[in-house]
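Morning F.,

Quick status update on the modeling queue. The single chain you submitted on Monday has been processed. Sequence for confirmation:
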Amino acid sequence: MQMLFQWEMSQQEPAKLETKFWKGAKAAEQTRTFANQLFEGAVHDSSALDELISKHAANWRLERLSVIDRAILRLALHEMRATDTPPKVVINEAVELAKKFSSEEAGGFVNGILDTFRKTMQEK
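Structure tokens below.
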């Protein structure tokens, strides 16, 4: 999520951002690999993810969302679409990130968008 936020603010190449990020952050190699995959996938699919956010964020234009909320939503939507992580786990983690890095209200907003998306996934 932090790398996506930095990417949104600077539009740097993902590989450069990863290198800078991991100089200051510590994690096991497996965690780094997974985080990089999620980040790179979310960047690559950002246009499609933004369309999903817009579709499920009734009465909210994408530009009105805070940068951090967009990063959290992009990351969570990508993870729900591209991994085997249970959607409810992804949603819970995203809500906690929103509460911690954005606002208490953002937690409910993020939950609503992701839960609506989860339900559309189940219909397929």
